[in-house]
């Protein structure tokens, strides 16, 4: 079982950057999303199955990002996600992006659990909630 904190490594490709070889700011959100998705996979949670079998899905409700330093073409980065708090229908994460020992991004994300049919907030099922609490 994955722990409360999770890390995901990736390489910066040409498609991630602007004409100057600097990561385009919106792509940091993609890297953070991938990290949270891989965290769920490490917990054995398949998001497609959650939607098809249980009628729920997740969506970002809020994200705040401090851009400390840029990532550059060919950089190897480490994207982290730390589960900070579980609410009834929300998951709060602290996220960061690193290049070696240098922090590039400091962020928080609040992810909401939604009913797939109505796209309205829905309580996180107790079995998932318990599994995540135990991972803390």
Highest CATH level, the class: Alpha Beta
Count of strand segments: 5
Number of domain modules: 1
Rounded to the nearest angstrom, the distance between the terminal CA atoms is 11 Å
Mean pLDDT: 92
CATH architecture title: Roll
Main sheet strand line-up: 1-3-4-5-2
- The percent range for strand residues is 35-45%
Spell out the CATH superfamily.
Hotdog Thioesterase
- SSE string, helix = H, strand = E? EHHEEEEH
What's the topology here?
Blueprint: E1 5-11, H1 27-42, H2 47-54, E2 56-67, E3 76-86, E4 90-99, E5 102-115, H3 126-135
Antiparallel strand pairs: 1-3, 2-5, 3-4, 4-5
If you had to describe this structure to a student in words, what would you say it looks like?
It is elongated and about 45 Å long. The longest helix has 16 residues, at 27-42. The protein has a single domain, classed as Hotdog Thioesterase (Thiol Ester Dehydrase, Chain A). By secondary structure, the protein is of the alpha+beta class. The chain is 25% helix and 40% strand.
Keywords:
Thiol Ester Dehydrase, Chain A, elongated, alpha+beta, 136 residues, 3 helices
